[in-house]
Amino acid sequence: MHRTFTHVLKRSIPPRPITLSSARSTCSPVYFNAQQVIGQRFNSTRASQNEQGDASSSSAAAPPPKNEEQTAEHNTEQAAPEAEAENVESPELIELREKLDKKDKDLAAMKNHYTRAKADFRHLQETTKVEVEKAKNFALQKFAKDLLESVDNFDLALGHVKQETLEKNTEVKNLYDGVNMTKDVFLKTLFKFGIKKIEPLDEPFDPNLHEAVFEAPHPDKTPGTVFFVQQNGFTLNDRVLRPAKVGLVKVEE
């Protein structure tokens, strides 16, 4: 190809007479320029051929492009078997899940049983506390009732002594004072253990504390009030141990 191009170039340039001196001065540059032009054209032609070859090889090697729908369908087809494989549980996993559910049910039942047992225990504690308090407060109830007879005897003994006798007889007066002091000490001892005397005189009738024995008209008293005490009443820790037997002022009709 280089020789052909040189031959064409020589034919296209008309010959002209040159001298020896001018041939020496121009021959070398002309030859150099022609050779340089030929080399540049040859290199450019070869480079273009190489580029075309690379492009054809790359186009042949690259796969045809796929659109987005085909790509999505392909990904879905690949993901479906994987999802089905993940959803399928092994027998060991199913057995472990059943055991876990059973343990959860047992734990819930135990918590419920524990809560009920705790509530029952607290209720038992409160009930026992109340019962112990009642037993403590009313353990002396029967014993206290027996002691009330002694108080009644003190009242009967002191009530039979007349005021005239006390004024005339010093010995009887001293005996009376001694018995009265003994009665007061006895009542104070009962008071320490929660036994209190009911004072119903001139108080309105209360069926919870009083027991009406009779009624009588009394102009100076309010109707329905207590004007006479036949037997004293007592309470044990605010519970009626024995009601007071009283006489009431009759209500006028």
TrEMBL record:
GO terms for biological process: protein import into mitochondrial matrix; protein refolding. It is found in: Mitochondrion matrix. It comes from Lodderomyces elongisporus (strain ATCC 11503 / CBS 2605 / JCM 1781 / NBRC 1676 / NRRL YB-4239) (Yeast). InterPro entries: GrpE, GrpE_CC, GrpE_head. Keywords: Chaperone, Mitochondrion, Transit peptide. GO terms for molecular function: adenyl-nucleotide exchange factor activity; protein homodimerization activity; protein-folding chaperone binding; unfolded protein binding. Its main location: mitochondrion. This is GrpE protein homolog, mitochondrial. Gene3D superfamilies: 3.90.20.20, Head domain of nucleotide exchange factor GrpE. Residues 44-54 have a biased composition (Polar residues). GO terms for cellular component: PAM complex, Tim23 associated import motor. Residues 66-76 have a biased composition (Basic and acidic residues).
